[in-house]
Amino acid sequence: xxxxxxxxxxxxxxxxxxxxxxxxxxxxxxxxxxxxxxxxxxxxxxxxxxxxxxxxxxxxxxxxxxxxxxxxxxxxxxxxxxxxxxxxxxxxxxxxxxxxxxxxxxxxxxxxxxxxxxxxxxxxxxxxxxxxxxxxxxxxxxxxxxxxxxxxxxxxxxxxxxxxxxxxxxxxxxxxxxxxxxxxxxxxxxxxxxxxxxxxxxxxxxxxxxxxxxxxxxxxxxxxxxxxxxxxxxxxxxxxxxxxxxxxxxxxxxxxxxxxxxxxxxxxxxxxxxxxxxxxxxxxxx
Length: 286
Known about the structure:
By secondary structure, the chain is an alpha/beta fold. It has two domains: 1-56, no CATH class; 91-285, 3-Layer(aba) Sandwich (Rossmann fold). 39% of the residues lie in helices and 13% in strands. The chain has helices at residues 15-29, 36-45, 50-55, 83-86, 104-116, 119-136, 153-159, 163-175, 198-204, 220-223, 260-273; strands at residues 95-100, 145-148, 183-185, 209-211, 232-234, 241-243, 248-255, 278-285. It has a four-stranded parallel β-sheet with strand order 1-8-7-2, sandwiched between helices. A two-stranded antiparallel sheet has the order 3-4. A two-stranded antiparallel sheet has the order 5-6. Helix 11 (260-273) links the parallel strand 7 and strand 8 (278-285). Helix 2 packs antiparallel against helix 6 (119-136).
């Protein structure tokens, strides 16, 4: 019998020690009584020991309504926005939501996943992402499709895989929403950690993405399962006309830092799909 170890610290997993913490976390993270059993099972699935589960830096209840930033102890500006969001006149994202605050432990785990491809972390992060959508979206099946922030071909060759695509596929399977490749990266940018300042990051992400060649949305009506929002796409590939229920696109990434990458992706989606399309982003870390 293989004894599972914690992906965060390497310690043994003890179900009895974890049970009380799982129940407490499930109560705090469930958006309704109906989602509690799902969130409970997802927390049970997390391959972390009791101590690491207790220490996970979940974002609190008081957040910026636009970017999802934890506002505990922060000054909320007008309309429930943080200082950064209140200065933006127009944002293509309906909102962003994230599950955990990005700390040193999170940075270490993300690096292990990105550059070593640890399969245990793929399961860990996909479970966290699924918890996030049940926490913030009462009916995840309302999304028409899921799409991801793409890697530039050069970066993809370096890593060998797109870690966010793996997480998106697991999320799509969990909630019954199709995953579509809608974007491609046209500009090779430096890692955001090496870019200096918010203004520089915003500029580096300008026109960094394009509508993916061969991306098709016309089949979404038939591809979606029951209860998912329907939309019909008419006209040419570059200027579709939306009719019926608006498309609701869920844009996935692992980390929200300044939000410049997600906003650039959303701008490209909005330019192609039109203003009727609603674009939401979901990340593990903020």
